[in-house]
Amino acid sequence: MSTTPSSHNGRLYIETVGCQMNMLDSELVVAALRRQGYTLTGEIADADTILFNTCSVREHAEHKIYSALGRLRHNRARRPSQVIGVIGCMAQKDQQLIFQRAPHVDLVVGTGQLAQIPELVEQSRVDRQQRLAVSLDRRDATRQQVSDSFVSYDPLRDPEMRPSPFQAFVRIMIGCDKFCTYCVVPLTRGPEQSRPPQDILHEARRLADEGVREITLLGQTVNSYRSVSDGRTWRLSDLLLALHEIPGLQRLKFVTNFPRDMSDDLLQAVRDLPKVARYLHVPAQSGCDTVLKRMKRGYTVGEYREMMHRINATVPGCAVSSDFIVGFCGESEESFQKSIELVREFRFKNSFIFKYSPRPGTKADDLLPDDIPEDVKRRRNNELLAVQNEISEEDNARLIGSEFEILVEGLSKSARKQLTDEPAAALPLADSHDEHPQLVGRTRCDRIVVFDGNPRMVGNLVDVHVYDCTPTTLLGTIVTREVLHTSTDGLPILA
Ligand code: SAH
Ligand code: SF4
Ligand code: F3S
């Protein structure tokens, strides 16, 4: 890849769907192209390079991209030098099919070839040839060959190109070997591969030096992390211990956990390391053993329960969140009720609920009929969500009156909206109301809190008193401690 900045000053538009892994990939691709002289634009009509970073986990996510591509077909005739690229999971999954369905696409670049994008875009603009860069299919080669073809994309980042100066994602592994029968990720992200701990620590130290306070470690099954380095095996708990030593970092999180790999050493690390969030995302997917078996999740409800007991016994007060799929092949009403019971029993902080979407290339799609009608899936989705919301609100209500240490992330959604709704001439913040806009942050248990505060607080830990809540959000006020008197060394003594 050419690393010398070119004089190109094109405009790049990028649309990203999917999980945090995709958000990180987009951030890194954008940084690489900006280094080549590109500027980002939010207007697709202004762009001479258009990238879609795609997700294949459900059909809906793919539809969105194909419709967006369809809308560009005519535009393209008017802009002959425009380069359109489809990158990420759908690129790896659909490959040539993308050129067939959208012949005006120039580039199809899989998750393992993201480093090549700047070069591919330039070549494409020059010779107008379509280019396909993807990894090997898992069925077509040995594990080693396939693994080698999925290259983890982890260049060091330019500080000024990060979306938030205080928060960063750090990838610790790529791929997945669990092969849950409904899931396309092992095909789109390839075999499970852990990054060497030294690389991760180096990246984290750099980020902390540049002012990052919170790092979220990413992996499809992040707690399966294993890497042999200097003759010893590193687990996620070892990595957390080492990351915890890095000065400047204040919070460490990691997603997503696989229930069967929730080991005691990891729970002890969460308990013992104050910077580590007391929060675990451990998707259950279903509350019914028959369904779990058909999903090939590798655990029973009893084993999930045992894991929850270990979490609660080792890390009291730890928040746990989950994912559920409703309407999976053969899910009876009785099976579905068991998912409701599971949510009631474990009182998750929140749950992401999805209607089953058959994915070509997966075991479930090959072998099991998608036999639950769409309206039943929708009803079950709404029902499970209603139960979860009721629980989230009840549990949030119990926190009213308490104080929490919040890591301030930035302006809240409504404050940001207010800013963008205002005419540009009214900016920057002018009147007294704007000096204390609504900010958003999270507790150590990952609960979202909004409160009025000074934007200078962003990136800092502050104490907030909670006075109200919704199912998803706590509402708070900053705790201002009254200064009683000053000690002999000049430091204030607080009430
Ligand atoms: N690696 C993570 C999550 C992967 S995808 C894990 O194992 O938990 C995120 C979520 O999408 C999954 O947890 C699952 O709930 C959902 N999902 C995956 N495949 C799906 C499908 N075919 N239809 C509907 N939901 C799906
Ligand atoms: Fe998909 Fe299962 Fe792997 Fe998660 S663990 S990415 S759901 S195959
Ligand atoms: Fe989607 Fe790929 Fe993430 S399929 S969920 S973007 S790993």
Shape: globular
Q: Roughly what fraction of the amino acids lie in strands?
A: 15-25%
In helices, the fraction of residues equals 25-40%
CATH architecture of the largest domain: 3-Layer(aba) Sandwich
Please tell me how large the radius of gyration is.
24 Å
- CATH names the topology of the largest domain as Rossmann fold
Question: How much is the average pLDDT?
Answer: 92
What's the level 1 CATH class of the largest domain?
Alpha Beta
Strand elements, count: 23
Ligand roster = S-adenosyl-L-homocysteine, iron/sulfur cluster, FE3-S4 cluster
Low confidence ranges: 1-7, 423-432
User: Strand sequence of the main sheet, in spatial order?
Assistant: 2-1-3-4-5-6
Helix tally?
Answer: 17
Supply the CATH superfamily name of the largest domain.
Answer: Methylthiotransferase, N-terminal domain
Report the major sheet.
6 strands, parallel
Q: How far apart are the termini? A: 59 Å
The structural class is alpha/beta
**Tally of domains:** 4
